[in-house]
Inverse folding.
């Protein structure tokens, strides 16, 4: 990532004789630590200087600068903004808004950083460094917009792909459901066909049984098993009695015929 140069105020021109020696000492120590990139300790020294002289612009500005270097962007922005509210000198305001622009750009607030750079140039229009940073911020914004458009297009493509996938899945599910219904229908048809065949076979078998039964009606059925001795004797006795009765009847009839014949003969006499 491009590193922006921070306009640091190490010496801001004429140092009034009113500044205390302690404030100057802490600022010098802070500047030495800042040059060594020990920004955390430099911040401490700048705070000590600000405690010695509350309205010290140099101590406050350099302390905000040290906060920025530590990537404490919220604290740095707050410190720079507080300085901008009470500063009247245009050159200093240009330097303050330049650093505000850098801080906002590091916070990925591109639009706000562009406005800060513009404000810096209104107060210090000759700053080439601020002009460069402004153009860089505008370029960043353009790239961000292009990336957003690409992401939007990609998102729309993904949505279209997802919709197509959903549609294909829906069609697949519908085809599977249709195939399942068709299989069920074929199974039902086969079951109905099997049932009809079974019914036809049952009807055929029933008709054959009925025809066979009708053929067997009226015909003497052979008795199964052998006749017992007692039944045989009773049957023989019955036959003998029947024969005896028949003989008696025949003899009685013959006797009646002979008697009638005699009577006829006697009458002729």
């Amino acid at each position: 990532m491009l590193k922006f140069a921070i306009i640091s105020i190490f010496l801001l021109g004429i140092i009034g004789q009113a500044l205390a020696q302690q404030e100057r000492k802490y600022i010098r120590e802070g500047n030495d630590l800042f040059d060594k990139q020990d920004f955390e300790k430099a911040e401490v020294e700048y705070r000590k200087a600000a405690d010695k002289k509350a309205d010290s612009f140099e101590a406050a500005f350099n302390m905000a600068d040290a906060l920025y270097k530590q990537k404490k962007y919220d604290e740095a922005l707050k410190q720079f903004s507080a300085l901008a509210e009470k500063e009247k000198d245009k050159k200093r305001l240009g330097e303050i808004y330049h650093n505000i622009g850098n801080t906002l750009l590091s916070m990925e607030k591109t639009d706000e950083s562009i406005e800060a750079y513009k404000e810096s140039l209104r107060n210090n229009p000759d700053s080439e460094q601020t002009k460069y940073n402004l153009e860089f911020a505008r370029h960043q914004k353009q790239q961000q917009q292009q990336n957003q458009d690409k992401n939007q297009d990609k998102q729309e493509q993904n949505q279209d792909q997802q919709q197509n996938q959903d549609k294909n899945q829906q069609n697949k599910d519908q085809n599977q459901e249709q195939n399942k219904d068709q299989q069920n229908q074929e199974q039902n048809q086969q079951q109905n066909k099997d049932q009809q065949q079974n019914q036809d076979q049952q009807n055929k078998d029933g008709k054959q049984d009925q025809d066979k039964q009708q053929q067997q009606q009226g015909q003497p059925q052979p008795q199964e098993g052998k006749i017992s001795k007692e039944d045989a004797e009773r049957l023989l006795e019955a036959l003998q009695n029947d024969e005896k009765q028949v003989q008696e009847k025949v003899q009685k009839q013959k006797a009646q015929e002979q008697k009638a014949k005699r009577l006829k003969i006697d009458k002729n006499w």
